[in-house]
Amino acid sequence: MSFKSPLNRVIGLGTAKEGVSHWWHQRVTAIALLPLGLWFAFAMLGVEIRSHAALIDWVSDPMTAVLLILTIICLIYHSFLGIRVVVEDYVAAKGVKVVTLLLSSFAHAFLGAVCLISILKIALGSG
Amino acid sequence: MDESGRPLSPFLIYRWGVTNSLSILHRITGVGLSVGILVLACWLLAIATGPEPYASVMNMFGATWFKLPLAAWAFCFFYHLANGVRHLFWDAGHGFGQAGIKLGGLAVVVFAVLMTATYAMIGLV
Question: How distant is the Cα of B115 from the closest Cα of chain A, in angstroms?
Answer without folding.
Answer: 10
